[in-house]
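We store sequence with structure; for instance:
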Amino acid sequence: MRIPSAAHDAVRDVYKTSMLRHLYPSRYRAAAKARVKEGSVVFLEVRSKTLSDNFKLIKAALEKHNEDGRYTTTTVCIMEGLENRALVARSCLSAIPALATAQFIFVSESSYFLSCLPIRSETTVIQTWHACGAFKRFGYSAVGKGFGTTREDLEKFPVHKNFSYVTVSSPEVVWAYAEAFHMEDKQDRILPIGVSRTDLFFSRKFRERSGEKADWVLRRMAPQLFSKKGKEEPRRPKVILYAPTYRGSVSHAISPDRLDIRLMKKELGGRYILLMNHHPFVKKKMRPAIPEDCRDFAFDMTDTLSIEELLTVADVCITDYSSLVFEYSLFERPLLFFAFDMQEYLDERGFYYPIREMMPGPVCSTTQELTEVLKTPDAEFDLARVRAFKYRFMSGCDGHATARILKLMEEGRQQGAAPGK
């Protein structure tokens, strides 16, 4: 029997109240009777089963500069909002002892669980948000939108609480994160010191390995793509990366299916190939299928190459409202926007800046428009606009963001307690 919506909401509210207001805080207080383990670092993965990109670099840097053993690291994954409630509850309860005795907690998502805990004064919580820049509204900025929740719900069950610091990609976006996290009176805690994972893009070794890996994968998928002229090494066509954000809710995310792959092959095949990357929230069965007669032109690389590798090898990037536009601007390469549902998205989610003024490239609403732009010479792309966009929104990302985060941790160790606690 299907439970009526109102009854379902009431049950969910009772469950949230029980867990977030009572069980988790009480378990945390009990565990916090133990002393903080100096140098202990916990990476809290909210919606990932493995260590995510920012955390991989931070953990690697900690291990590299840990000759005296001052830091120990632990990773906990809770899958909040993605798994069933019982499994999430078990994961949260299992995570509490480590969180309660940690000197540092890293998080890169919003979390009901983390925000409900009465974090002790000796613990510093560093929010390294998973997105660069400030594009789509979220948190308190999305209150009243179709995507967001109500202010009443956010105040009852805050998901952006307990952050000692928030690290962001540039001074330009501090105001947006202050609004989203309801930290207007703590803007000095929002630090434009860069986003850790962008350090990869400044590594020549990583760029070279990404190109080699992409070629290795494509040679096995479609060796005919590599042409050879005389004594030259075989070369593949230029790469178009199509990486849209998801539609729908986090737990029922889908990818848009409006891109006409057959038309792109007809108009651009031979000169380009199309590599596709879907948002990690989108399950494989919810991704649009590539037509069989286009599988020598278009390739779904979501589970084969990382988004960082794909951004590195792409000659041109097509996206819609994904924040990866900020990362890709670091390469100062052509950007296109396939924004067929812009008004709908604006109504449901909203943006921090006037969207058409902000987008540093042609905005298209049909595949035909995309192909027409891509058939023009490279000079038609306004790369000066891309550079200006980069300097505005990514000035803190220079290859040394991780080092600055470690410096922040060292300063915290010397001070002994999180700020304002």
Q: What stands out?
A: The longest strand covers residues 40-45. The longest helix spans residues 5-31. The chain has 15 helices and twelve strands.
